[in-house]
Amino acid sequence: MSASMGQLALTALLCTPALGALLLAAIPRYRLAAAVNVSVCALTLASAAALYRHRPQPSLYLLVDDLNTVFLVVGALVGFSTSVFSAGYIAHELQTRRLKVQDLRFYHAMYQLLMFAMNLALVSNNIGLMWVAIELATLTTVMMVGIYRSKEALEAAWKYFILGSVGIALALFGTILVYLAAQEHLGQGMAAMAWDRLAASSAGFDPSLLNLAFVFLLLGYGTKVGLVPVHAWLPDAHAEGPTPISAVLSGLLLNVALFALLRFKLIIAGNSHVLAPGPMMVTMGLTSLLFAGFMLYRRRDIKRLFAYSSIEHMGIITLAFGLGGPLASFAGLLHMTMHSLTKSAIFFGVGYISQLEGTQRTADIRGLTHSQPLLGWLLVLSVVAIAGMPPFGIFTSEFLLVTSTFPRSPWLAIALVAGLLIAFSALALRLQGLAFGDTDKRHRLPAWRLAPMTLHLALVAAAGVYLPGPVVAWFRHVASQLG
Amino acid sequence: MSPLDSDIAHLLAGSMVLLSFLLLYQDRMFALLNVFAFHAFALAGSVAWQAYLQRAPHLFITALIALLFKGVIIPIALRRIVVRLGIHRSIETVVSIGPTMLFGIALVGLSIVVMLPVTQAEGPFVREDLAFALSVLLLGFLMMVTRRNAVSQVIGFMSLENGLVLAASGARGMPLVVEISVGFSVLIAFMVISIFLFRIRERFDTVDLQALDLSRGESS
């Protein structure tokens, strides 16, 4: 009974966005399209939530386990609230004629296609299928980043496209190497690409092939995660595309790429003769954290600022998973969830701010708490949250990570804390200029438009104060799997 | 497998590496497109030979895709784009040929040094095939790095993808899904790029990426 329910939910999870994309490509009217977009996302969220309770039977192609349900639920939630935000945001873009009505059919269809691709990447049990899905997700976001067709947008999209393709090519080569290592044991064909079988029998694989494969996979999917030194596309893509896409990029797509890396890390971890993948991930994560922390100081564009903050946080999460162990992996999972929610909330706020102020330059934005008190204070709170201050959830996860790092490698913990402090002070410095100071401007925004942002912040604050027992048990179980 | 069989396979895969070197230093658009067509032909031959050796008929489809799509349709389409954009007479200044070629040779050496010891367990056949494939891949990267012009970057990317298909066809019994998907992804990639090229052309009257590289969004 539960398995068939699960099968139904899984089918709904994949079919709803795919059909939604087709439907939305045919709807010319903006209001209707936005409403359909929101309801399709709501259905996807419902099916993701159903998968938490009911698990379908794993097949050679699709698999739902504890690990990907976390990513699915977080992804569907962020996808849903972003669609609500997008409705208000796009209405304004239409008024100011930055987007035309024709663009919207394309935009909405691409949005759902992106959701479909990400869900497929998460539930795929086949490493080839996962690769295809991530490639598809990348292509749809490339198209959306370039949607304004301004010079900067095209440059950003081109850069993203070229770097993304290079990354995806490296990842495919790594995937082929994993298959080669597997086919001697699992035989030729589909079975040697099914993740669950790979993970179960990786102990006998040729270790040198797996080593080489993981280097390619780390660089390849690491490009998508936005790890330094292959991060160059990320700030441009965040800054020049429509803000809902920045929110989805930061909140979802980076996670999906990280998820792919985790899947491969689990395969590698089953083989004791392979170089441990952990130290490589820790190095890349720490580099990203420190590099992005320093880069935060010189940003003059508000969306770029928070894009660098995403690099920083992806660095922290990669470091946590690379470090491994139940506590650090738990911290990594929690941090990933909290970062998705908080960062998308920030981009919701930033989207409205850049629309109301008519600029993305931080020097031209002042006194937000005066000009639009509700939005301004929400932004202050979310920046406080992303900087890792209590009582928000990010504080909890960073605290857990630091305390679990100290006994194991004190020097690493010191570097980690230094990175966190550097980023914190950069954000505090910027926030002061943005949120406070005198201004004559007064803006009004309908309160419902702030609902997604408020919801995310409330969740992050609640998680910081009290994590419900079932969630803790769930995350702890996943963390023990991650090793 | 007879020695002749593996000799032919090496000949075909090795010629792809050679053609990648040829791609590296072409500075005229049409010559570049012609060399790329040959690159795709060599890929098609190589994949077809693998299909014959492995008794894997589905690989013939991959070979056919390489032959028709990458070897014929794309070069013709790119040629039309080049003419329409009016860049067929321009000669692209590539980073000087000598260092590029030396670097390319170093990359081929690197891929052989990396791949051969790692794949000890595989048959001799798969090993060399993978070493060739990685060489083509790295040379494709090198081309993308040294070129400024958008069209030649696209060619660099496609030669890189050819290396991937070579690797995938060499891996015994790799499921068809992947090969077809590679073909499709190239198709999609190409469409995306061509759309971009047209828009870039419309807006800036150039497809030279250096002209696009002015703004980092923070110049003011």
Set out the fold topology.
The complex is a heterodimer of chains A (483) and B (220).
Chain A: H1 2-25, H2 30-53, H3 66-95, H4 101-123, H5 127-145, H6 151-186, H7 195-201, H8 207-225, H9 233-240, H10 243-269, H11 277-295, H12 302-323, H13 326-357, H14 368-371, H15 373-386, H16 393-408, H17 410-435, H18 451-465, H19 469-482
Chain B: H1 3-25, H2 29-54, H3 58-85, H4 97-118, H5 124-146, H6 150-170, H7 176-204, H8 209-212
Helix pairs in contact in B: 1-2, 1-4, 1-5, 1-6, 2-3, 2-6, 3-6, 3-7, 4-5, 5-6, 6-7
Biggest interface and residues each = A-B, 50 and 50 residues
Biggest β-sheet strands, sense, barrel of chain B: none
How would a textbook summarize the main sheet of chain A?
none
List low-pLDDT spans of chain A: none
* SSE class of chain A: mainly alpha
Characterization of the model:
The complex is a heterodimer of chains A (483) and B (220). With 483 residues, chain A is mainly α. Chain A has helices at residues 2-25, 30-53, 66-95, 101-123, 127-145, 151-186, 195-201, 207-225, 233-240, 243-269, 277-295, 302-323, 326-357, 368-371, 373-386, 393-408, 410-435, 451-465, 469-482. Chain A has a domain at 276-483. Chain A starts with a helix and ends with a helix. Chain B has 220 residues and is mainly α. Chain B has one domain (3-212). In chain B, 80% of the residues lie in helices and 0% in strands. Chain B is built from eight helices and no strands. Chain B has helices at 3-25, 29-54, 58-85, 97-118, 124-146, 150-170, 176-204, 209-212. Chain B is globular, with a radius of gyration of 18 Å. The N and C termini of chain B lie far apart (65 Å). Mean pLDDT of chain B is 78; it is low at 201-207 and 214-220. Chains A and B meet through helix 5, helix 6, helix 8 and helix 9 of A and helix 4, helix 5, helix 6 and helix 7 of B.
